[in-house]
Amino acid sequence: MKIKNWKLCLVADADFTTAKDLPALTLQAVKSGASIVQLRAKNLYAREFLDLAFRIAKRLGPHNIPFIINDKVDIAQACKADGVHLGQKDMPLYQAREILGNNKIIGISVNTVEEAIKAETEGADYLGASPLFYTDSKKDLDPELGIKGLQEMRKQVKIPILAIGGINSSNASEVMAAGADGIAVISAILGADDISHATQKLLKAVSKLS
Question: Is the pTM of this model over 0.90?
Answer without folding.
Answer: yes
